[in-house]
């Protein structure tokens, strides 16, 4: 063998050794990370068993992501964010569902409440039981992290680029205040946290969950880049203290599946969909009352045919009169208003001239373009606001606000003055 060939062979051997060592270090880092986050349970109460389904490496796998507002380690935080990722290994399709935190459901062993209360009552384990009971689909894996963990993930991948639709400003506790300017910009971890937490837009939590799904997609796309493989051990070490998960139970199969996915084709949806919820009031709380049968049909429609989310939505709406509501409350009818449209886009009937006034009892109540939760939110009114009733369509009032705006509000969240 010539000297030149020996040098080339030694060079190739050296590169192969480096690659093997690098791959081995990455695998070791991953196993170490998942062992630690499975053993340490900062969010568990100790009172609930983990009832996840078993995934054998084939078929659809469902992963529940939970983001919690844990500012005081001694408090039992609620889950501020709940994202359900469903992955089909055969089609390589990923569907991500945002579960609205005000959804009113049955929490096993506790009773009916907002779904985000399940985390406070029994940690990730009870929230998993609640979601499985609500949607009737198995949850195989979960990941729970807090505000700081989320911010560190975004910082570790070098930030994200988003277009902030308007100025986001909200005074909180001095640490988690929100102050983002309108426009296209690069966000670090803390700023990305502000972006996904803000609820001050006209559609409130509906807009917020849309932004959360947007950011998850951006993070997934960046994590797939070759440069992230080099950073993987550092990223895992950074978020380890803030994370609890059981993903390590089937690490090789999940890792192989993750590498085969195309994050750019990720489908993102909301649970409950607008046609399967009613904004109402229970006790002192404004809640989203789901038509449970419609919600399950909607989710199954997307999981069984991930390319036809619109068809799943349409099927749920068409079947709205034939499905029972397991929560005991039916979906409000989507009645159409008659007459001309007002300048703000609402369907404006002839004024009754009754002069009746009502007071808003809900903390924040959406003003809609037409009577029904599926119609566009054109503004908001707040607890104590006085509204002039111009007409009534079913369970909806057509009102004029004190500022002169017209729109529809549900009668469940107002009362006669």
From TrEMBL:
Name of the protein in question: SH3b domain-containing protein
PANTHER family to which the protein is assigned, alphabetical: POLYISOPRENYL-TEICHOIC ACID--PEPTIDOGLYCAN TEICHOIC ACID TRANSFERASE TAGU
Chain positions covered by the region annotation Disordered: 309-358
Alphabetized NCBIfam families for the sequence: lytR_cpsA_psr
Family stated for the protein in its record: Belongs to the LytR/CpsA/Psr (LCP) family.
Membrane spanning residue stretches: 7-28
Domain SH3b stretches: 355-417
Any Pfam family the entry gives: SH3_3
Keywords assigned: Membrane, Transmembrane, Transmembrane helix
Composition skew (Polar residues), residue ranges: 309-318
Compositionally biased residues, Low complexity: 319-356
Protein species of origin: Tumebacillus flagellatus
